[in-house]
Write a structure and sequence with these properties.
- By secondary structure, the protein is mainly α.
- It has one domain (about 1-95).
- The chain is about 70% helix and about 0% strand.
- The chain is built from 6 helices and no strands.
- It has helices at about 1-10, 20-25, 30-40, 45-65, 70-85, 90-95.
- Helix 1 (about 1-10) packs across helix 4 (about 45-65) and helix 3 (about 30-40) packs parallel to helix 5.
- The longest helix is centred in the middle third of the chain and has 18 residues, at about 45-65.
- The chain is globular, with a radius of gyration of 13 Å.
Length: about 100
């Protein structure tokens, strides 16, 4: 389902989106953007980690059948980020 949604947008796979396409297709709603901004500051996310989180959130939204990336998708992407980085729970508790 996620690949079909990505193919329908004719932008390629979310993992390979360039920055302009990522900004156009994966910009989260206001609550999602606020959560991501707070996480970026609290966790000191690099630009690469920030953009990777957006790509994962877009894929989660695709799996959810959602047209837009919402806060719930960003939150799930950040929870996966915690697993990627092996970060401690206290760091992520600050952004929830």
């Amino acid at each position: 389902h996620a690949r079909a949604a990505q193919a329908a947008r004719a932008a390629g796979l979310n993992a390979t989106l360039d920055l302009p396409s990522l900004e156009r297709l994966a910009s989260p709603d206001a609550p999602g953007a606020a959560l991501l901004a707070k996480a970026a500051e609290s966790l000191q996310l690099s630009a690469r980690a920030y953009h990777r989180t957006l790509k994962v959130a877009r894929t989660i939204a695709d799996l959810d059948g959602a047209d837009a990336v919402r806060r719930i998708h960003v939150a799930e992407a950040l929870s996966l980020k915690r697993q990627w980085a092996g970060a401690d729970q206290a760091s992520f508790a600050k952004v929830s």
